[in-house]
Structure formats: structure tokens, C-alpha cells
Amino acid sequence: MLFSQEPARFISKNLVFEKLTNLKYYSDILGKNLDEQKYSAFIYKENELSELEFLANNFQGDFIRNSLLIFLEKIVRLSSFYLFLLREDEKIKERYEIENEEEFCKILQESLSWIKPKDIVISKK
């Protein structure tokens, strides 16, 4: 028997995302350049982001991949996306437009720094 959930939930292995029903709130944070009709928005609901933050701050060199990073690297292969990381005061500090996974990993690792955390938007248009 299948049951619908509101908001919709999407689960892949141990990753859980909920579809955002109030995209207007986030489009106000991101700015007017987000076409709400063109994109679907999901919020990550589990603790792999904390694990990824720990890995980014405790290991030099290559960014050790957990299941969330592996999933996000697949998103980078899409033709266009917006990924926003909001942790501090919900004010975007920096915006990045990327072209490949290497750029993505470098920017994400820097933004997860405990010394200088940043609320960011990473996009590919």
C-alpha cells in the first residue's frame, strides 16, 4: 500500500529530500533571477551535511566523499540548477556559477569552513 505525503518526500539510499511548497520565500532570498515556474525546489532533511562539513574541516587535500557529496556531484551534471546553502543568517554572501564537478567541490568545501562559513548559491545556467 502506498501513501502520499505532504509535502512530497524523495528518498535515495539514506538521503531524504522534501519538496518545498513555499518557493516564494526562497526566491526572495535568492533574488529575482529565480524562475519559480522553471525549477522544483527540495530541502535536504538528514545529517549528511554535518558529516560533510566535518570532513571538509578535518581533512586536507582531496574532499572525502560521503553519500550527499556523491549525490550533489550528479546534480552538477544537469544542464542547469541552483544549489543554495543557508546556515547562518539566511543572507547569501556569495554567488558562484560553475561549469564542472571540480569547481563545485572546491567552492562547497570552502563554504563549509568552520572558520569562515558562508551562505552561498552555486548555479549552472
Q: Give the helix/strand class.
A: alpha+beta
How many distinct folded domains? Answer: 1
Q: Which descriptor suits the 3D outline?
A: globular
What can be said about the biggest beta sheet?
Answer: 3 strands, antiparallel
Distance separating the two termini: 40 Å
Number of helices: 4
Instruction: Give the SSE order as H and E letters.
Output: EEHEHHEEHE
Radius of gyration over all CA atoms, rounded: 15 Å
**Uncertain segments of ≥5 residues (pLDDT<50)?**
none
Strand content: 15-25%
Physical arrangement of strands within the biggest beta sheet:
1-2-3
| Percent range of helical residues | 25-40%
**Rounded mean pLDDT score:** 80
* DSSP E strands, number: 6
Textual characterization of the structure:
This protein is of the alpha+beta class and 125 residues long. It has one domain (9-124). The protein has helices spanning 23-30, 48-58, 67-76, 101-111, and strands at residues 9-12, 15-19, 42-44, 81-85, 94-97, 120-124. The strands form two sheets. The protein has a three-stranded antiparallel β-sheet with strand order 1-2-3, with no helix packed on it. Strands 4-6-5 form a three-stranded mixed β-sheet, covered by helices on one side. The longest helix is centred in the middle third of the chain and has 11 residues, at 48-58. The protein is globular.
